Amino acid sequence: MKKNILILNTGGTISSVKTREGYQPKANHVEQALRAIPAFSHADMPDYEVLEYQPLLDSSNLTHEDWNQLAADISHHYDQFDGFVIFHGTDTMAYTASALSFMLENLSKPVILTGSQIPLSELRNDALDNALTSLWLCAHRPIHEVCVYFNQSLLRGNRTQKISSTRFDAFDSPNFPHLAEIGQSINMANGLLLPEPTAPFHWQPLHPQCIANFRLCPGTAMEVLETLLQMPLQALVLETYGLGNAPNNSPRFLAMLAEASARGVILVNSSQCAHGHVKMEQYATGHSLISAGLVSGHDMTPEAIYCKLLYLLSKSSDVNQVKAEMTRDLVGELSLSQ
To answer: The pTM is what?
Structure first.
């Protein structure tokens, strides 16, 4: 029996056509284009329906409200479809994939985000394979999580980062292997896939939270950080060096962090390196941050850290609980360092 997949089209490059102002998403274009391509009607392909959002958006304009709408629509159609493909702009795809991976609790069906660097409307494009293979994977592989499919690679959604603004291989997962490589054959890393949950599916809405990022640079003006920490922050992601290191010869810097932590600001240490873990205990310049109250971001992407904070703070106002959950692996977003 054929599987039935729902395509949720938010817009982005894949839905765009050329205009005088540059590429812009065009209403109803994607569904008409897909219906005209014989491969999408092949016997091995699933049946599908398209739910198109109005207005279609460049992904740079998406907010947590759009994530709530996507999660709500998946929940509303959850029992009617065997899987979901989300057409999405590339700029914030990694954020949306991370957010949905937390929001769609106990997900037992595939949710695959995809898009393109060149629109489906152009003769030479990467949209065709991305859309076709995403649908095929939803129908034929036992996926129980949120993924990104792009340029012949299937990635865990909350491990994904956009690494190129121009290449077809625009996404990678620096700290986690690819879930599948698609070439002449489809090689699934079945041992890496999340197991099918036994608890019932539920979606958690997100609510606005005051979360900030601060990137350390040599000689950073501490007045900037001081001003930021005086705001009514709920959480701050401190982007540090290497294994999670920061200046430990500035009592003012460490005191600012300790005071903010004591006030209940959740401070998360995130490395500026794409590869590797935060290991604050390895160097004195990192250990001082433990004393100041920072919790480790382990090997999470910055996108996953932000979305996980947003998710946890939407569920609980208990600072200690949120801190504890930030260091736990909830849906494959982190690996504990060895």
So the answer is: 0.96
